[in-house]
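ok, trying the design again with the full structure, not the truncated one.
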């Protein structure tokens, strides 16, 4: 998420990590010629969509990994049971 390129009101871009822990007006991290309002910048429609899309992708990746781990654990359990059954005979 930190590496998202956020569009600034001066049509320059900066990384999300340069804005995420800041608030109020700060010096423009790209051109340093003016100040920007961090909240206003992050609430620009383009940036809001970009941030939301990235959060959704991160959540989806996490859910897919969790689901994969559950399936792997289930398959591993089945294999262990089959091995134990074979060992009993």
């Amino acid at each position: 998420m930190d590496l998202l390129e956020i569009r600034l009101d001066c049509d320059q871009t900066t990384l999300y990590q340069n804005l995420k822990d800041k608030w109020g007006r700060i010096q423009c991290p790209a051109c340093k010629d003016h100040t920007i309002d961090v909240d206003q910048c992050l609430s620009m429609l383009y940036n809001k969509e970009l941030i939301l899309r990235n959060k959704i992708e991160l959540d989806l990746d996490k859910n897919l990994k969790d689901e994969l781990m559950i399936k792997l654990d289930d398959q591993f359990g089945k294999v262990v049971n089959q091995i134990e059954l074979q060992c009993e005979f």
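Keeping the full-length input from now on. The helical segments are 38-42, 45-88.
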